[in-house]
Specification:
Elements lengths: L1 H8 L21 H28 L3 H5 L2 H11 L23 H11 L15 H8 L3 H13 L3 E3 L4 E3 L4 H11 L3 H14 L3 E7 L2 E8 L14 E3 L4 H8 L3 H10 L13 H14 L2 E4 L6 E9 L5 E10 L5 H23 L2
Antiparallel strand pairs: 1-2, 3-4, 3-8, 4-5, 6-7, 7-8
C-alpha cells in the first residue's frame, strides 16, 4: 500500500506538457492539473497511513476496537484465551509524564515485568501473546513487535505459541546486587545470624510501596515461608519496611504516605496515619522495629537498620519467627542485640 502511494508521486510528465499551445494540445492542458491531483491524493493517503500507525502507538487499544468481534474470537480461540480479568501493568498516564520520557522503552520494560511471578497466571513464567497484551495494556500488534524485539536480543524465547524469559535477564539482578555489596562476606554474616538465632534472617531495601528482599538465609524446617530473593512485601506492615520508612526524612515520608495506602493485612495491622506516625517515632527512638502479626497471623519479626558510613540507612536486616516459638520480649532482648552487631558488620561491606 505504501509502495502504490509512493508510485503516484513519481508519475512521469507526458511529452505534451512541454509542447506549444495549440488547438491539438488543448486537452493536454488539463494533464498537469490531473497529475497534481493524483500527487496530492497520494500524499493524503500516505499521511493517513502514518496517522493510523501513530495512533496505534499512542492509543494501543485503537486497533483492537477496529477488529471485528468474530475475528477477535477466532484469534483468541487459537491462542487459548484472551487473558481477560488480568489488570494491566500500566495505567495510561502518558499526559503527566516528562518530555524526555521514552514510551517505547517503557513498554518494552513493562513486557519484561509482565512475566514476574507476582502477577500470577495459568502457566508459571509462560504466556501467550494475548496474555502479555492484557497484562501490559498494549494492543496485540504492539505486544507482538515488542516480544519479537526482545527475542532478537535474547531476553525472551518462544516456541511459536508461548513466550518466556531467558537467563539473560539475570544480568540485571546481578548488576544491582553486586554493587550493593551482597557478596560472599555479607552472605556469611547473614548466615551466621540465622544459625545463631535458629530463625530465618533477611536483608531488604525499600522500593515504592514495598520492601524487596535482596538477601535471605532460611532455617531448615518442615514448612517453608516461600520468601526468597526478589520477594516483595508491603513496607508499612513488615519489619524490614517499617525500619526503612522510619529512616526517611520527613518530606520523603509524607510523600510516601500520600502515594501509598496503609492497607490492613490483619486485624492487628496499623492502618491509621496518626497511629503509624506514632509507631515510626517509637521505632526511631529505639532503633528497631517489631511486627507482631500485622503482616500475617502467627508470624512475628524484628528488624534493625543497616547504616552506612555517611549515616544514611542503606538497607535493613531482620529475623522472623512463629508466635508459637518466640515471644515479643525475646525478640527485643535476644534478637535485637545480635541483629545490631550483624548490621554493624554489614554496614562496612554494603556502604555505597
Amino acid at each position: 500500500m505504501h509502495a502504490r502511494a509512493l508510485a503516484l508521486l513519481v508519475v512521469p510528465r507526458t511529452a505534451g506538457h512541454d509542447a506549444p499551445w495549440n488547438a491539438s494540445t488543448r486537452n493536454a492542458a488539463a494533464l498537469p492539473r490531473i497529475e497534481r491531483h493524483r500527487k496530492m491524493s497520494a500524499v493524503r493517503t500516505i499521511v493517513r497511513m502514518i496517522e493510523r500507525q501513530w495512533q496505534d502507538e499512542v492509543n494501543p487499544g485503537a486497533d483492537r476496537k477496529r477488529t471485528t468481534m468474530s475475528r477477535g474470537t477466532r484469534s483468541e480461540g487459537r491462542e487459548g484465551g484472551s487473558g481477560a480479568g488480568m489488570p494491566p501493568l500500566v495505567s495510561g498516564e502518558e499526559g503527566r509524564r516528562e518530555p524526555d520520557f521514552v514510551e517505547a522503552l517503557a513498554r518494552g520494560l513493562n513486557v519484561l515485568a509482565s512475566f514476574s511471578p507476582e502477577h500470577g497466571g495459568p502457566r508459571r513464567g509462560r504466556m501467550i501473546l494475548s496474555e502479555v497484551a492484557a497484562r501490559t495494556g498494549l494492543s496485540r500488534g504492539t505486544a507482538r513487535r515488542l516480544l519479537l524485539t526482545l527475542r532478537s536480543l535474547n531476553y525472551i524465547d518462544t516456541d511459536g505459541r508461548f513466550f518466556w524469559l531467558t537467563p539473560k535477564v539475570l544480568q540485571f539482578s546481578n548488576a544491582y546486587l553486586n554493587p550493593l555489596g551482597l557478596g560472599d562476606a555479607a552472605k556469611a554474616i547473614i548466615r551466621d545470624v540465622t544459625n545463631a538465632l535458629n530463625e530465618s534472617s533477611s536483608v531488604g531495601v525499600l522500593d515504592g510501596p514495598d520492601v524487596v528482599y535482596v538477601a535471605r538465609f532460611e532455617v531448615r524446617r518442615l514448612y517453608s515461608s516461600g520468601i526468597d530473593v526478589g520477594t516483595r512485601l508491603p513496607a508499612h506492615c513488615s519489619s524490614l519496611g517499617r525500619i526503612l520508612l522510619a529512616s526517611l526524612p520527613h518530606e520523603q515520608l509524607q510523600h510516601w504516605l500520600s502515594q501509598h495506602e496503609l492497607k490492613k493485612m490483619t486485624p492487628k495491622t496499623i492502618a491509621e496515619v496518626s497511629r503509624f506516625h506514632e509507631e515510626l517515632a517509637r521505632v526511631r527512638s529505639q532503633k528497631y522495629a517489631i511486627i507482631d502479626e500485622e503482616l500475617e497471623i502467627g508470624i512475628r519479626s524484628v528488624a534493625v537498620p543497616i547504616v552506612g558510613q555517611s549515616g544514611r540507612t542503606i538497607a535493613s536486616l531482620n529475623a522472623s519467627a512463629s508466635t508459637a516459638r518466640i515471644s515479643v520480649d525475646t525478640l527485643a532482648d535476644v534478637f535485637v542485640p545480635r541483629l545490631h552487631v550483624a548490621a554493624g558488620n554489614l554496614s562496612a561491606i554494603m556502604d555505597w
